[in-house]
Amino acid sequence: MQKNKTVAGIMAMKKAGEKITMLTAYDAAMAAMLAAADVDVLLVGDSLGMVVLGYDSTVPVTMDEMIHHASAVRRGAPAAFVVGDMPFGSYQSSKRDSILNGGRFLKEAGCDAIKLEGGQEMCGIVTALVQAGISVMGHIGLTPQTATQLGGYKVQGRDIESARKMVEDAVALEKAGAFALVLECLPDELGRIISEEIAIPTIGIGAGVHCDGQVLVT
Question: How far apart are CA 69 and CA 80, in angstroms?
Fold first, then answer.
């Protein structure tokens, strides 16, 4: 079965003005349904900790749990473009750890890419992953793994200083090699500015209508 999408194909959708659809999947049955509906990207999100596993946040989710669910998603949707979400603690400590854990998503679960949270402080990790052959989707704005440091689950980038930092983070992640960027809980206008500032696709979740695509937790 031929693959539906590639990293290059996802990036080309922005240039073509085609909106990108991304939904979360945690098992084979859901993955098969989303693939049948022609969803562009299936995200095996660490949100599975709260949606499926009963945790009160995404922080407790382990790599083994992510690989287990990502493998099921791949079996249910063998031709889909699947992104594995790097759980808390799996990439922040070192480039080596990020490559080893990111590589597991590709080798063991058959994912096409990984997603990680963070801005400029993660650029060295992003570049190391890309140089190792692991495609990276970035994630800025409200980052659930560090929500307590951000004051809880609330909109980010409301003031000029934090909005400027969001734009700088987006530009830095693009330069570091990210092929796409999730924007979570940002003001509509900031989502527009970032989407126009960078060449890679932006995929919004509560970040307004001007993003290049939208993602929802299913």
Answer: 15
| 0.85 exceeded by pTM | yes
Q: Return phi, psi of residue 100, to 5°.
A: -60, -45
User: Residue ranges of the domains in the chain?
Assistant: 7-216
Which tokens in the block code for residue 156? 């980010």
- pLDDT of 46-98, one tens digit each? 999 999 999 999 999 999 999 999 999 999 999 999 999 999 999 999 999 99
Domain 7-216 is found in CATH 3.20.20.60: yes
- For 2, the token pair is 């031929």
For residue 93, give every residue at least 6 positions away whose Cβ sits within 8 Å of its Cβ, in sequence order, or none. none
Question: How many residues does this entry show for the chain?
Answer: 218
Q: Cα(197)–Cα(192) distance, rounded to whole angstroms?
A: 9
β-bridge mates for residue 85, sequence order: 115
- Tell me the catalytic residues: 184
